[in-house]
Amino acid sequence: ADREFVGLQLCYDIRRNQRTLEWKKEIGFSHHAVKKGGDTLDDHGASAALLQKGGVFDAEKVIDRFMKDLPGLPAQVGIFVMQKLAEYAKLNPPPRPTAEEIAAATAAAIVAEQIAAQIEAEAEAVQAEAAAAAAAAAPKPQRVVRVTPPPVPQQPVKPAAAVPSIADFTLDDVPAKS
Questions:
Q1: Could you tell me which residues come within 8 angstroms of residue 80 by beta carbon, excluding any fewer than 6 positions away?
Q2: I need a labelling partner for 174 at 20 to 30 A (CA). Which of 9, 16, 156, 159 fits?
């Protein structure tokens, strides 16, 4: 019953951009970026980490990651750490973006939309080309036209009236002009 937490140190994002959040009962919170020291003879081979105060605390990301590891911790420890993470997040909200950052993000979004539209148009052109090539390569159906000759009469056709021959005409049969 007389046991209490007097401090915590949570190191996170160790592989990319290591940072540490500390809380001490007497002092309160501190947040640091961890910069790895060198491994040269000048620093006597020490690879000590250097702490730089400040830096952005991505509460959502840190709390989400901590929640994944929570089942492996004693309940009291998990509750205490979650309370301290929430408390620090409330005290240190993320900074609002500057006008320049908003403009840059907007410009980047516009460029991304333009690139996406260009890619979509190029994909449609490639698909149209492929369809045209496939159509050109496909065998064309042969159109067969059948011509049916007229029926051949069974008996010779006789004219209804007698057709005069040219030999039967004379100039005498042509009326004179007056």
A1: 5, 8
A2: 159
